[in-house]
């Protein structure tokens, strides 16, 4: 068994929605990013890559590569799973925390879990998503952006 950790941050810019865990959430701002900016999935990709000692998301999908402009982060997650599968790894469970003062994420958490479980080929019971504010402290608390942490456990026979 191996474990990995991922962390990512995206700042806000003008816009009308956020992509988080593959869920489109109406909001008064958008993520500034090369891809769709799904900070939760980016942290999860890094946790999975980290567990398999395969580097990080920017190494596999550089933010200088036009192929990833506006990319669907769920497609990147599925590519990460393929990389792990090629190495004989399967995912045991993942746990993610989104650090966001706004918007309210609780109504979307189950849809996020279902998306991630589907992309990872896992039972939804192996996928957890949590949200926390920072009690208005720091960049998330000032509503300048959102951070996400993820941990993943992988295994092979
Ligand atoms: N963007 C967010 C942040 C938090 N939640 C939910 O609110 C609960 C309380 O948050 P604390 O910051 O006081 O820990 C938390 O358990 C989350 O379920 C949310 O929905 N959206
Ligand atoms: C997702 C990628 C894709 O080019 O770009 P961004 O959306 O900018 O996201 P970030 O987490 O800053 O970098 C990782 C990149 O792989």
From TrEMBL:
Pathway: Isoprenoid biosynthesis; isopentenyl diphosphate biosynthesis via DXP pathway; isopentenyl diphosphate from 1-deoxy-D-xylulose 5-phosphate: step 4/6
Domain of life: Bacteria
EC id: 4.6.1.12
Region forming the signal peptide: none
Reaction(s) catalysed by this chain's protein: 4-CDP-2-C-methyl-D-erythritol 2-phosphate = 2-C-methyl-D-erythritol 2,4-cyclic diphosphate + CMP
Keyword Metal-binding: yes
GO terms assigned for molecular function: 2-C-methyl-D-erythritol 2,4-cyclodiphosphate synthase activity; metal ion binding
Co-factor note (free text): Binds 1 divalent metal cation per subunit.
Alphabetical list of PROSITE patterns matching this protein: ISPF (PS01350)
Similarity annotation: Belongs to the IspF family.
HAMAP family reported for this sequence: IspF (MF_00107)
Self-association state and partner proteins as the record states: Homotrimer.
Protein name in UniProt: 2-C-methyl-D-erythritol 2,4-cyclodiphosphate synthase
Record lineage: Bacteria, Pseudomonadati, Pseudomonadota, Gammaproteobacteria, Chromatiales
Gene assigned in the entry: ispF
